[in-house]
Amino acid sequence: MSSASETMRVPPDQQHKATLICPSCDHTSPPAGDWNTKTQDGTEIRRCPDCGTVIERRRTFDQSPDRTEHPSPLTWQTELSRIAVAWQEFCVAQTRRLTGR
Q1: Within a domain: residue 93?
Q2: What is the full per-residue pLDDT of the chain (101 aa) written as tens digits?
């Protein structure tokens, strides 16, 4: 398990500008680091390898050059639902971290 204070001790020439930090266990790694990544229903999901907390959800789109059709836009209800789920997971992770469960 890494902590923010351990990250500060890394020599400046070895530090990454972009670093993701798990809100539950403080594991740190660059975006292309050791996170468990899977794509499900057009969404890339990154989870902490130590505790399994969802760190990031990102929509994926087909990047093939022969694609002529654009992805359909998300409705505001779908986007709001995704934000609510992410917020709930964050709150649960913080509660667990603070209560020691």
Answers
A1: yes
A2: 444 444 445 555 555 578 888 999 989 988 888 999 998 888 899 999 999 999 888 888 765 555 555 555 667 778 888 899 999 999 999 999 899 87
Residue 67 lies in a domain: no
Which tokens go with 28?
């740190």
CA distances from 8 to 2, 28, 32, 49, 71 (A): 11, 11, 20, 21, 41
Three-state SS for 100? Answer: coil
Structural domain including 23 reads: 4-62+73-99
User: Residue 48: inside a domain, yes or no?
Assistant: yes
Measure the N-to-C terminal CA separation of the chain; round to a whole number of Å: 16
Residue at 16 is within a domain: yes
Residue 29 phi/psi, 5° resolution? -170, 155
Contact yes or no for 42/18 (Cβ under 8 A): no
Domains contained in the chain, number:
1
